[in-house]
Amino acid sequence: MNSVHDMGGMAGLGTLDPGPDEALFHAPWESRVLGLTLAAAAWGRWTLDRSRYFREMIPGPDYLGATYYERWFTALAALLADVGLISETECRTGRRDPGTEIATPALNATQVATVLARGAPTSRALNALPRFALGDRVRARNLHPAGHTRLPRYVRGHRGQISHYHGGHVFPDANAHGRGEQPGALYQVRFSARELWGPDAPARDAVYLDLWEAYLEPA
Q: Which of the four, 50, 58, 99, 212, has the lowest number of CB atoms within 10 Å?
């Protein structure tokens, strides 16, 4: 979807300078939001791609005015209400609704380290051979989907070259919307800076992006 979250290639947003000793969390509540997100996801009521989509749906002014974990918290509250784990009243007031059932946590503190170490691999077997080979020239399709996508806006319509093949992986555009994993071939694609931003860009600079086959066409 075309929304304010897709900031790649945009100017005027300031510099990123985390510094050598940047803290993982800037306030205790941020670590709690991460913990809440992990614990809630353990119920398996939504996918990682759907959680990203809910963050993308935060209205632009609210998104830009929020910190990183404020966005996570806003999206998590919306997800919990969407699947019925909390009521809209609870979401609005922050108080338990006597009419809702108290669910047993799907993830407790002793399981967290194991869950984090295991991760959530997205690699899948494919039933078809990949369409493109290393070195092939491709073009990122000029797509503007209404839902979730991992195709950055700033590369759409631009030419690149296949630099690596990652195998089959869950297709986020489908997985975010309950249409199943629909795994597809995933490639690393090299885009020269001049292809993306014109002749004034440094000649030797390039951007490497992991893009699904459905995003690409022969150049």
A: 99
